[in-house]
């Protein structure tokens, strides 16, 4: 039986996303006709050791890997600052490419990645794992339009895990976010997103507690409460990646990807503290530096030393 070949490109292969996606593709999704046939990474020595332990062939470079794959998956989920550099190595090979969360460290870099993909004629897609959950399925089943969401979310830091609730909100309510405000403490902030047509999303993010991802959905039908089914979360996410590879064209609107990145940029600033900041006044985006009281990832801290 012939199969389509996927190559993993990473910063360090030993991470949670590499493990769960590899397990899903070798297990539940094996009958989709895709195989992970090789991998490469920036941190070569520990990544080669990990690959060997997981029966995955390791290649010394993207160029070598490109010769034996049909599609690329750029992972590095904790290192978005690596994504543009990795895309620079991958896109010239003109193979459909999935880029894991968080797509880029800022809005400007996100635009640059899309621009680079267009220059090479490459189909590219990015999502968080919370793009394809039972919550989105419940929204699709609503008879009347979704009017508001109250989302609970958690994670060890907002810079790394804040994308998940924002992906939920934008995937359900669309890219037309008008403004954003943050209230609460740095460890337990709440974000209020105002969408077009007087729609809203409120996100409660907690760094200290093990909070499930969930949403209260409000429409003319009434109120529905849904908790993300974590048992199938990464299988569903991997299946969506395969849908993209099969179509060889993005299944997610770039406007949504760019709006999520803009939300994340603004959410981290002191400007958004206790007052609404417009997300539409500056159509060209721009680089917004995170406020100093927000914790940065270990990688960002290392870069600043």
Main attributes of the structure:
oxidoreductase activity; Oxidoreductase family, NAD-binding Rossmann fold; 7-stranded mixed β-sheet; single chain; 11 helices; Dihydrodipicolinate Reductase, domain 2; 305 residues; 35% helix; disordered C terminus; Rossmann fold; Gfo/Idh/MocA_oxidoreduct; alpha/beta; 5-stranded parallel β-sheet; oxidoreductase
In short:
It comes from Bythopirellula polymerisocia. With 305 residues, the chain is an alpha/beta fold.
Question: What would you say this structure looks like, in words?
Answer:
The chain is an alpha/beta fold. Helices cover 35% and strands 22% of the residues. It has eleven helices and twelve strands. The strands form two sheets. It has a seven-stranded mixed beta sheet, covered by helices on one side. Strands 2-1-3-4-5 form a five-stranded parallel beta sheet, with helices on both faces. It folds into two domains: 4-126, Rossmann fold, CATH 3.40.50; 130-228 and 260-278, Dihydrodipicolinate Reductase, domain 2. The termini are far apart. The model is unreliable at 285-305 (pLDDT under 50). α5 (107-120) packs antiparallel against α10.
Q: Give me the CATH fold name of the largest domain.
A: Rossmann fold
The DSSP helix count reads: 11
- Extended strand count: 12
**Beta fraction:** 15-25%
Order of helices and strands: EHEHHEHEHEHEHHEEEEEHHEH
Shape: globular
Q: Assign the structural class, choosing from mainly alpha, mainly beta, alpha/beta, alpha+beta, or little secondary structure.
A: alpha/beta
> Do you know the CATH architecture of the largest domain?
3-Layer(aba) Sandwich
Low-pLDDT runs = 285-305
CATH homologous superfamily descriptor of the largest domain? NAD(P)-binding Rossmann-like Domain
For the record, the CATH class of the largest domain is: Alpha Beta
**Mean pLDDT over all positions:** 92
Q: Supply the number of structural domains.
A: 2
Q: What is the terminal-to-terminal distance? A: 51 Å
The largest sheet is: 7 strands, mixed
**What value does the Rg take, in angstroms?**
19 Å
How much helix is in the residues? Answer: 25-40%
* Strand order, largest beta sheet: 11-10-6-9-8-7-12
